[in-house]
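User: I'm preparing a small set of examples for a lab meeting where we compare how different chains pack in three dimensions. I only have the primary sequence for this one, and I'd like the structure in token form so I can line it up with the others. Please keep the answer compact; I'll paste it straight into my notes.
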Amino acid sequence: MDRVLKSARSSGSLNLSNRSLRELPNEVYQNLDGVGEDEKWWEAVELQKLILAHNNLKVLKEDIRNLSMLTVLNVSHNKLSCLPAAIGELALLKSLDVSFNSITSIPEEIGAATSLVKLDCSKNLLKELPCSLGKCLNLSELKASNNCISKLPDELVSCTKLIKFDVEGNKLIMLSENMLVSWTMLTELNAARNLLTSIPDSIGALSQLIRLDFHQNKISSIPPSIMGCSSLAEFYMGTNLLSSLPAEIGSLSRLGTLDLHSNQLKEYPVEACKLQLSVLDLSNNSLSGLPPEIGTMTTLRKLLLTGNPLRSLRSSLVSGPTPALLKYLRSRLSSNEEESTTTPTKDDEIGMATRLSLSSKELNLNGLGLTCVPPAVWETDEVVKVDLSRNSIEELPNELSTCSSIQVLVLSRNKIKEWPGAVLFSLPNLSCLKLDNNPLAPIPSTGLEAITKLAILDLSCNTSSLPEPSILSSLSQLQELYLRRMQLAQFPLGLLCLRQLRILNLSQNSIVSIPQEIKELTYLTELDLSDNNIAALPSELGLLEPSLQVLKLDGNPLRSCMDEKNCSI
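Assistant: Understood. Below is the structure token output for the 569-residue chain.
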């Protein structure tokens, strides 16, 4: 503990999670008082981040006020029944996570913590939220799901910067009209699994709303004002009491997912057939028929209809693949209408993928026959995963350099010839890169220096991309490496420096031997050496037994008992 506290005085961050703590050591509350003789007191810093999650803490003392510089406090997954009033004296606190405890009330003093941006009090025993939260004017994310809250304090109307609001799994019977009017920056609203009987008309004021979830309530209608939610991409209304839908729902041009399962719908409005949905769930309703115009919704990937008394559709169509059902419905249109029905254009598909990415942060453009990267990639905010696989892209544009949030970039099966070093250098958060099955030219000797934080790399089927395998040694944080069908004649010795490797795939090459030094890769859990020319294995391979779970050796001329078998260790 002394070592951890000493480190905290240097970094300003203390993580004591998963330590089975029953109480917080007094030394934590008196952080700087414990400066040792071997420490430079003038270099010690106040605690700014304190993580106490997943312990057995029952009490957080009022002494927490001593940590006046705290900006992040996480005491989730403990056994707290209350919070100290001194929480309000943490004037710089921005993030407070007290989820998964047994807290029955949050002290009104929390309103004095006016810097608060994120509050998570989910999975507790709260019957109400403190009125003083309305004084936290910077609050942008409030999670209070899975409690016993029956009413929200009117003072929350002052929290005009709210972006995410989650009260799923409570006992709310209504949402205030005034609150929604003031929360115009809201992008996610989750009030599922409550006792709501209606949706406020003011819902239309939420023009930036992307995800709206009211499933499992007692709502009997959707107000026409829903058309004002012009950014809505996901709308969940399953398990309610809806008997009809407003025609105005057809105005939601960005809607990609509409879940209406387990209601009492008797018809689906023709106006809603204009939506460019990818998922439409109408299962378990009272539909006796469908408008044939649904057949024109060619962007639909999944249409669920089971559990309806449909008399005009064969059961095989209802439970069968969506494209076949859409084709049948189109066949019932008049000839003029059928002629006007067109398959979605490439721009339509890109637009639909972009809408879905607004909430998922994943942009999927695979298999669209693209010859270049579309502007939608760098125009989509905060996307973390971009899948451009199975296209005909030859190069990455410089504009992609602006997408600093990208963590996963999938470029498999394209026509990329030159190593995109300049672009990769501008993606500081990139952790996964897949460039397999491209006609990639040799990677420059300094080409991997830009992606040293990479955890997953796939260069399979690029026979010329590794002129000098030792260049891989710079990827010290790599955990998964795939080099299938690379025409490698030798085990790349540069891999032996990758001490964090967990998965290594060298299958379908021409490797003849495995170096004894492979014993140094002590984190390996999966090693695929299948379909090579390996005749013998080094005995040192057995030293990997504690971690190695899968060893694939089939397709090698081995003279041992493991000849042509997949081995589980």
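A couple of notes for your slides: The radius of gyration is 29 Å. Residues 552 and 566 are 4 Å apart (CA to CA).

User: Perfect, thanks.
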